[in-house]
Design brief:
81 residues, 1 helix
Length: 81
């Protein structure tokens, strides 16, 4: 199972973006994006550092809040969710 954490774009240079993912910054490739993105947008990133989907800001914030709530419960078997 893959859990994609919404990541906020903080810088764009051509087809490379710097994103913030839960406080960690990293570079991702935008070549798989089917729509334009801008600084401040949230994207989902697949293994290999390719952004593949833009996520509405409200939906991204809701997802991040839910993830924080789940992770705050401590280690558990994720299959129980």
């Amino acid at each position: 199972m893959c859990l994609a954490i919404p990541s906020r774009i903080i810088e764009i240079d051509g087809l490379v973006a710097v994103v913030d993912t839960a406080g960690t910054q990293r570079q991702v490739n935008l070549m798989l994006m089917h729509e334009d993105v801008a600084v401040g947008d949230y994207v989902l990133i697949q293994n290999g550092s390719f952004a593949y989907e833009r996520v509405d800001e409200e939906r991204a914030r809701e997802s991040l809040a839910l993830m924080e709530e789940v992770f705050a419960q401590g280690p558990a078997d994720v299959r129980a969710w």
